[in-house]
Design goal:
The structure is a homodimer. By secondary structure, chain A is α+β, with helices and mostly antiparallel strands. The first copy, chain A, contains six helices and five strands; from the N terminus they run H-H-H-H-E-E-E-E-H-E-H. Chain A has two domains: 1-90, Arc Repressor Mutant, subunit A (Orthogonal Bundle); 91-146, 2-Layer Sandwich (Dna Ligase, domain 1). The longest helix of chain A has 13 residues, at 55-67. The model of chain A has no long low-confidence stretch (mean pLDDT 85). The complex binds manganese (II) ion (2 copies) and zinc ion (2 copies). The first copy, chain A, binds a DNA duplex through helix 4.
DNA sequence: CAGGTAAGTGAAAAACGTTTTCATCTACAC
DNA sequence: GTGTAGATGAAAACGTTTTTCACTTACCTG
C-alpha cells in the first residue's frame, strides 16, 4: 500500500498533527533512500530543495514520524542513530571492515525462523533487526601480513 | 572459567596493556552487575570506592575491555550505549524493546552458514557479528492498545 | 473567502555525551 | 632502583540533541 498524500494527511491529523511542506520533504528524502540516514544526512539532503529548513525541524519531524510508525529508528555502531522507511522492500545489512571501515551491503539474512521463535518465547512483537558482520576486508588482510 | 587476576593481567599484557587499579575497578563494577550499565552509571558506581577517578578513564577503559572481548557493548533505545560482561562461552545477542528499553538476552543465532557464504563471496575474514532484534515487549504492547 | 487559533518553524542558546589534548604519574621490564 | 612506554585526570573541544522564544502557518469555523 503506497503512502498517498491523502493517507499521510489523515494519519497525521488523527493525532493532531499537520502536514507541512517540511514534513513532506523529510519523509520524501527517507522514502527515496534505501540506506539508513542519520539526522544530519537527512538535513543535508532536505536542504538541497528546501534551503530554509532548520535542523531542529528535522529532529522534531523524525520524532513525529517514528511515533506514528511511518519510519523506524536504528541503532548501529558508529553514529548510533539513523532512520529508514518502516517496511522497506527487503531490509539490508552490513559487512564492515573493522580496520579501514569499508562497508559491503547484503540483504538476505534468513532470520525469519529465529525471529518467530524469539517472538513466541518472549512475547515480543518484533519490528525489525540489526545485523552486522565485522571482519577484515581483503586489502586489510594483506596489509596485516606485512 | 572465572576471570582470575592473573588471567586478566595476562590478557591485557598480551596486547601491551597494563593492569591498573582503575581498570580493575571498572571491570569489577561491570562484573558485579547483571544489568547493562551506561558509561555514566559505571562512573558513578566506580567513584563510590574510587573517588579520584575521571570519567575519561571510564571511557578509555570501556574501549579497551570491549576490544579485548571481556565486555560487550549494547545499543538500545534511550541512552544508546551500555556495557555488560561478556557471557562465556558463546556470544550473546539482544531483543530490545524500542519503547521502554527492556533487554532480553539470547545466544543461539545460527549464523554460521551465512557467515561462511559472506566470507567466501567478499573475501572477508569475519571476526564477529552484532545481532539485535527490535520490537515491543509484552508490557508496551498492552499500553499501546490503551 | 476571511479570521482566529492551535500547531509548527527557525535561530540561538543550553545541555548532553564523548573525544582530544597535554602535563603529570605509574606499572612493569630490566 | 631506574627508565620508559603506557595510563591518568583536568580542561577544552566536539558533535549531537534539546530547550526556549518570538514569529509564522495550516487548517477549522463561520
Ligand atoms: Mn547499507
Ligand atoms: Mn544482554
Ligand atoms: Zn545506539
Ligand atoms: Zn579494510
Amino acid at each position: 500500500m503506497r503512502l498517498t498524500e491523502k493517507k499521510l494527511t489523515s494519519i497525521l491529523r488523527q493525532r493532531g498533527y499537520r502536514l507541512t511542506p517540511q514534513r513532506r520533504a523529510v519523509l520524501k528524502v527517507i522514502a527515496l533512500s534505501s540506506d539508513h540516514l542519520t539526522p544530519a544526512a537527512i538535513y543535508e539532503r532536505v536542504r538541497r530543495k528546501h534551503p530554509g529548513i532548520g535542523l531542529v525541524t528535522i529532529y522534531r519531524t523524525l520524532a513525529v514520524l517514528a511515533e506514528l510508525g511511518l519510519i523506524c529508528e536504528v541503532h548501529a555502531g558508529g553514529s548510533c542513530r539513523s532512520y529508514l522507511m518502516r517496511k522497506p522492500p527487503g531490509h539490508h545489512h552490513h559487512l564492515i571492515c573493522s580496520q579501514c571501515g569499508r562497508v559491503v551491503d547484503f540483504s538476505d539474512c534468513d532470520l525469519g525462523g529465529l525471529e518467530q521463535r524469539l517472538a513466541r518465547e518472549n512475547g515480543f512483537k518484533i519490528e525489525g533487526h540489526l545485523l552486522e558482520f565485522l571482519g577484515l576486508c581483503p586489502a586489510c588482510q594483506k596489509s596485516a601480513q606485512a
